[in-house]
Amino acid sequence: MSKILAVDLGGSHMRVAVNDDGALRGRREEPTARDVGAFIEFVRGARCADLDHAVVGLPGRIDYAGGRLEYAPNLPASWLGQLTEAHLADELGLPVSLANDADLAAVGEALLGAGRSYSDVAYLTISTGIGAGVVLGGVLVHGRRSMAEVGHTVVDGAALAAGHPATVEELGSGTALERLAREAGLELNGAEVVARVRDGDAKATEVLDVVIAAAAVGAVNLAHLFTPEVLVVGGGLGLNGELILGPIRALLDRRGPSDLPRPIEVVAAELADDAGLAGAGSWRRAFRPETDRSS
Predict the structure, then answer these.
(1) Do 83 and 141 share a domain, yes or no?
(2) Which domain CATH number covers 195?
(3) What is the per-residue burial (b if ≥16 Cβ within 10 Å, else e) of 149-168?
(4) Which residues pair with 11 in a beta bridge?
(5) Tell me: the pLDDT tens digits for 121-159?
(6) Interatomic CA distance for residues 208 and 23, integer angstroms
(7) pTM of the entire structure?
(8) Residue 227 covered by a domain
(9) 159 and 207, same domain (yes or no)
(10) At what angle do helices 202-226 and 190-198 cross, to 10 degrees?
């Protein structure tokens, strides 16, 4: 049994809990801090006795070999130098493992959530941004760095050439939904757009359809890259049932990997915002350093 300080830093919210052999104790959530010092104080406030180590999920590309956050478009650049395993270990007084937030949530969903009955799991989060993580045979897919960054893949070459939004994240995220809603004359946040869609609002439906079509392309690309048995969809926008899963499933049927013995399942994440906190408890089980992939 072990007690792990589980941390999930997102673009809009930060969460912390003690993962006590799978149970989350003392869970706290706040809007993401304005400075890195306040974030560290938030994490430090959850410390308790007998902690084994900390696992910190961060919204960006992780240099796993170097133990540092390398790139994070939704965080101030000034944070990068302090979000390292060495610095956080000094601040918290215990060993720290950094994880890409989508990788961490993927481990949680693959081993404890909606993917637990499958061997090969791809996780897609559709939220402020778009992230993904892949767990094959119970082991997280990674190299020196975190990977499966499908949100940053280009899906509209003409838009790219013209200098317009062109990636899956720029076109298919919650941020994209709010931008397109404003352009359509709807001064609404993402949740309000979805509520209007459920009420039958034609303009809101048109906006959501455009955004989810882009996210669905990202999902299909992820499926072709890793051919999982199941695609688990989470995130603030992703967890809206068939409004989101239906279009993804339909495009995957038409343009996903062909002639599989069993079609790739598309299911909703089960652990919601706690997927990363849950994944922290299984991180050492699923994460294999580059030098230890043969066992």
Answers:
(1) no
(2) 3.30.420.40
(3) bbbbbebbeeeeeeeebbbb
(4) none
(5) 999 999 988 999 999 999 999 999 998 899 999 999 999
(6) 36
(7) 0.93
(8) yes
(9) yes
(10) 110
